[in-house]
Amino acid sequence: MKLWLLIFLWLSVLLSAHAIDTHTFNNPQQQEAYESLTSQLRCLVCQNQTIADSNAELAADLRRQVYEMLQQGKSYAEIVQFMTDRYGDFVLYNPPFKAKTGLLWLGPLLFLGLGLIGLYRFTKRKKNTASDDEIKSEKLAKIRSLLDEGDVS
Amino acid sequence: MLKYLLPLLLFIVMAIFLAIGLNLNPHDIPSPLVNKSAPIFSAPKLQSPDEKLSPSDLKGQVWLFNVWASWCVSCREEHPVLNQLAQQKRVTLIGLNYKDEPLAALSWLKQLGNPYTISIMDQDGRIGLDWGVYGVPETFVIDKKGMIRHKLTGPVTLSAIEQTLLPLINQLQMESE
User: Fold this and answer.
1) Which residue of chain B comes nearest to A59, CA vs CA?
2) Which member of B33, B125, B128, B171 has the lowest number of beta carbons within 10 Å of its beta carbon?
3) Cα dihedral sign for B51, B55, B60, B63?
């Protein structure tokens, strides 16, 4: 029990882990922009973390870059452009919709469509077998009536 | 018949895609800088910090830009390969000493040999960031006009030199400025 508690506590520490920098911002908007940018840029060393979450040195350098560019009065779009110019779309957690990323965005819809078509055909076939049963029972009734007629004569 | 073949076909298609996925290197991120002009810098030389080097000094030459550091384990692995390449004198090899201590870097070169024509210092990693460096070692091939023509992520191997770098360098050497 104690061990479980320990593991739980340890995991909760991990979950709240967040790289800490001490930056002073000119205004709340700038801080907001900083937080939103760093949580949308991917750390290229530890690829499943944003640069806000990562403690990698590269992430720290990228955060510094974002901070400095904001201080210089660069806009959100300019900073995103700066990063993609150097690291490609991969640096964005939210990749833009392009010919190259089309399959990425439309893939799920494609599979949904395929699934629906499959479902439609499957249920239709079920119906067909049901009507087969009806035909069978009709035939059975006919046979029975023919047999009954034979009994009379 | 189709009813039985369809799952098999689906399986084969999936297996092919998964196999491709397994063989891709997630750390090999294509650089958007290829076929763009090399980012400008002016950085102090490692051996003589009073002098500076910038890409415009290398106009008219085909050069390799190799990002290295004394703390980088894979750099140690590629170092003998670079030494060999330097001996052939086919190309100018410029080193970017990335986020390193100059003293550690100098003793590293003394100990393992210095394949670089010139190494420049990037102690705070700003030049690296400008070049889209995310993992050391990385190697760029720059043509006579100062355009980046190829990027190699990870240690340079003998086969990479023979199959990719040297043919490309030969081709670039023939191009006019």
Assistant:
1) B134
2) B171
3) positive
pLDDT digit string (tens) for chain A, length 153 residues: 677 777 766 666 555 556 667 788 888 888 999 999 999 999 888 878 899 988 888 999 999 999 999 999 999 999 999 999 999 888 998 888 888 788 888 999 999 999 999 999 988 887 766 666 777 888 888 888 888 887 655
| Residue pair B117/B94 in contact by the 8 Å Cβ criterion | yes
Range of the domain at A64: 19-96
Name the token pair of A28: 């709340």
Closest approach of chain A CAs to the CA of B139, in angstroms?
Answer: 15
In a domain, A11, yes or no: no
Binary contact (A45, B131; C-beta < 8 A): no
Query: Do B32 and A57 lie within an 8 Å CB cutoff?
Result: no
Is there a single domain that holds both residue A72 and residue A56?
Answer: yes
The domain ranges of chain B are: 33-174
| pLDDT for residue B17 is more than 60 | yes
Interface of B with A in 17-46 (CB under 8 A): 26-27, 29-33
* Domain covering B33-174, topology: Glutaredoxin (3.40.30)
Are A32 and A80 in a shared domain?
yes
Domain identity same for A87 and A107: no
Q: Residue A66: name the closest of A88, A44, A41 by CA.
A: A41
Residue B64, Ramachandran bin (φ over 0: left; ψ between -120 and 50: alpha; else beta) = beta
A58 and A127 in a single domain? The answer is no
Q: Has the ipTM of the complex gone over 0.90?
A: no
Q: CB distance B129–A62 less than 8 Å?
A: yes
